[in-house]
Amino acid sequence: MAKFSYDKSNRENASTPFSALPKGAYVCKIIRAIEAPNASGKGTHIEIGFDIAEGDFKDFYKKAFDANTSEDKKWPQDARYYLNVPTDDSKEWQIQQWDTFWTNVEDSNPGYVFDGDGDKLKGKLFGGLFHIEESEYNGNIYSHTRLKWTRAAEDIRKGKYGKLPNDKTVERKTSSDGDGSGNGSDDFMAIPEGVDELIPF
């Protein structure tokens, strides 16, 4: 390996770890909403980019976005929520998720009625319950704080939102384990079936 010289006092280009949003309940605001086809080729979904609207973590994801110096930076993946557009083949939980989300958006924004116009959604509030989701890749375990359930914003402010969703963890391997597997949660995923999670935002 070739040797190179460097100034130990120069840390402008050093990367710093990005602190994760603590799990909890937050009032959120919609940044953008777009409809896109599912990767499976069947049906479409709404991809909603959001940020934290109030409290100590206000603008949490915008700050992370602004701090990203990549030329092709995108809105943080953890700050996106996916809704399948219901069809005759939709599962019951998908329809429930759809109805619940828009009911909570309407309840959080007096006078607003969802009419399918994505442009009107920018800046609209809703309440979100966040949990920890772990994933494993190449033997490493990664932890993310993800929006799991939605509520009316006022319920979050008053603390009347019930329990937080269970975390989704990856089972740790031991010397006697085989491949290992993730522990399932007791509720549905927010990401629709067939969605490509790398869709640009």
Structure description:
The protein is an alpha+beta fold and 201 residues long. It has a domain at 24-158. Helices cover 15% and strands 26% of the residues. It has 3 helices and 5 strands; from the N terminus they run ββαβαββα. The protein has a 5-stranded antiparallel sheet, sandwiched between helices. The longest helix has 17 residues, at 92-108. Residues 1-17 and 178-201 have low confidence and may be disordered.
Brief synopsis:
Helices cover 15% and strands 26% of the residues. The protein is of the alpha+beta class.
Question: Notable features of this structure?
Answer:
26% strand, alpha+beta, 3 helices, 201 residues, disordered C terminus, 5 strands, disordered N terminus, 5-stranded antiparallel beta sheet
Q: What's the rounded overall pLDDT mean?
A: 82
Describe the main β-sheet briefly.
5 strands, antiparallel
Helix content: 10-25%
- Quaternary organisation: single chain
Based on CA inertia axes, which overall geometry fits?
A: globular
**Tally of helical runs:** 3
First CA to last CA: what distance? 39 Å
Radius of gyration over C-alpha positions, nearest whole angstrom: 19 Å
Q: Proportion of β residues?
A: 25-35%
Task: Encode the helix/strand succession as letters.
Answer: EEHEHEEH
